């Protein structure tokens, strides 16, 4: 059954590529104004971010570890970025560790805590990003026990199940703030309270709470004191900053083992010459995102709800994945039955629209989304799911164009699909 579907999907892709090779369609494609609806995968660099980074490529290019003027200029920029980011999340500057992005931040939090122990118990959810899930799978081979919490049909964990899962061996809990595929927002404050109450009852047992806030950074409150987290990961490329840079917040007093070995940069926890241009860009992007998040959230929620309402209205056998209210303002993830998601993406791409089936990190994988199946949906439904994530330049006209071309594409694919 599965092989038939994969073969059908490959056949549809070849069919689409043949269409795109035709000169007339290719010219039309190249001249078309593109509509980018995959902001959860990555974003363009904001003009203000680019301007802030510019001096550090050639004029202020020093190594922050050196003591002469060029090095002092670089170190000054590094310290300023660390201080500003800390202030935006209610933290201290020495609690910010710069990394090369979200995956490294997640890995550093998980391995940095766990490998201080010879074994122990870790709790996470079944819908985490693979940066967390695959790290946990590695630790399972190193004598650690991992509990993967179920989620409900909306993608939210059950706090009662979390309470039941806590035990004397628990050392780390990692639950993402907002899911990258369906945008489900977890009750982070409530999770922190459950952990805090357990620690008090068990005489302040050391249990650390990490959250992957990579998708949340552009739209949600990231104040670590209000959230009650011990560790938090953020990535610049999801908030209109440069790729290849992020940070990990680690509450003061928490010991982390490095996962990279070298010099003494970042207190020896993350050695390597600091990428000053990118760190400056991260700082600026994060500042802009946090300052405009409330206003931008209201704007994109209106567009998101408009798109959801009309897709479900005009596309037969379509359904929303996750709850409309308990999701990121910019996220739309729908299942369109009897239409392979990858084929739909290619057809939309040919019409000038960029979107995805889910996580960009697994877009080449033929396996169905682990997030959609965790909601209780079938593998077939997971293969028929597609994600639209809106951004700062997204307009109602973009939504109307998508709604105009989508029904015809769905009808065509259903006529040729073997699903």
Briefly characterize the structure.
The protein is α/β, with parallel strands linked by helices. It is built from 15 helices and twelve strands.
What does this molecule look like?
Helices cover 45% and strands 13% of the residues. It is of the alpha/beta class and 419 residues long. The protein folds into 2 domains: 2-44 and 293-416, Aspartate Aminotransferase, domain 1 (Alpha-Beta Complex), CATH 3.90.1150.10; 47-289, Aspartate Aminotransferase, domain 2 (3-Layer(aba) Sandwich), CATH 3.40.640.10. Helix 9 links the parallel strand 5 and strand 6. It is globular. The model is unreliable at 1-8 (pLDDT under 50).
Q: Class of the largest domain in CATH?
A: Alpha Beta
Q: What is the radius of gyration computed over CA atoms, rounded to a whole number of angstroms?
A: 22 Å
Number of helices: 15
Strand order, sheet with most strands: 2-8-7-6-5-3-4
Order of helices and strands: HHEHHHEHEHEHEHEHEEHEEHEHHEH
Mean pLDDT: 91
Terminal residue distance? 9 Å
- The 3D shape can be described as globular
Percent helix range: 40-55%
Poorly predicted sequence stretches spanning 5 or more consecutive residues: 1-8
**Fourth CATH level, the homologous superfamily of the largest domain:** Type I PLP-dependent aspartate aminotransferase-like (Major domain)
């Amino acid at each position: 059954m599965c092989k038939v579907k994969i073969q059908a999907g490959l056949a549809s892709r070849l069919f689409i590529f043949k269409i795109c090779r035709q000169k007339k369609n290719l010219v039309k494609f190249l001249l078309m104004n593109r509509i980018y609806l995959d902001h959860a995968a990555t974003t363009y660099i904001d003009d203000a971010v680019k301007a802030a980074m510019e001096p550090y490529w050639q004029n202020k290019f020093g190594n922050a570890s050196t003591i002469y003027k060029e090095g002092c200029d670089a170190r000054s920029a590094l310290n300023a970025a660390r201080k500003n980011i800390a202030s935006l999340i209610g933290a201290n500057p020495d609690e910010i560790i710069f990394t090369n992005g979200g995956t490294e931040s997640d890995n550093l939090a998980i391995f940095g805590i766990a490998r201080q122990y010879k074994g122990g118990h870790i709790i996470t959810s079944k819908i985490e990003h693979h940066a967390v899930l695959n790290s946990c799978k590695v630790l399972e081979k190193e004598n650690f026990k991992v509990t993967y919490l179920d989620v409900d049909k909306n993608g939210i964990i059950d706090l009662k199940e979390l309470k039941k899962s806590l035990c004397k061996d628990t050392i780390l809990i990692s639950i993402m703030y907002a899911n990258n595929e369906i945008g489900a927002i977890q009750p982070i404050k409530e999770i922190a309270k459950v952990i805090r109450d357990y620690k008090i009852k068990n005489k302040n047992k050391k249990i650390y709470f990490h959250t992957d806030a990579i998708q949340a950074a552009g739209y949600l409150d990231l104040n670590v004191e209000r959230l009650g987290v011990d560790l938090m990961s953020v990535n610049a490329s999801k908030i209109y900053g440069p790729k290849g840079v992020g940070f990990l917040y680690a509450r003061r007093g928490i010991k982390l083992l490095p996962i990279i070995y070298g010099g003494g940069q970042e207190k020896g926890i993350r050695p390597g010459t600091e990428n000053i241009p990118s760190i400056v860009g991260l700082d600026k992007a994060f500042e802009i995102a946090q300052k405009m998040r409330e206003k931008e959230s209201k704007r994109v929620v209106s567009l998101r709800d408009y798109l959801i309402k009309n897709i479900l209205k005009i596309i037969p056998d379509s359904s929303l994945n996750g709850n409309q209210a308990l999701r990121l303002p910019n996220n739309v993830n729908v299942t369109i039955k009897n239409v392979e998601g990858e084929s739909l993406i290619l057809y939309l791409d040919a019409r000038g629209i960029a979107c995805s089936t889910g996580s960009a990190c697994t877009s080449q994988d033929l396996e169905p989304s682990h997030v959609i199946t965790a909601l209780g949906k079938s593998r077939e439904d997971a293969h028929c799911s597609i994600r639209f994530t809106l951004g700062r330049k997204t307009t109602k006209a973009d939504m109307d164009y998508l709604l105009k071309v989508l029904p015809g594409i769905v009808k065509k694919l259903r006529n040729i699909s073997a699903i």
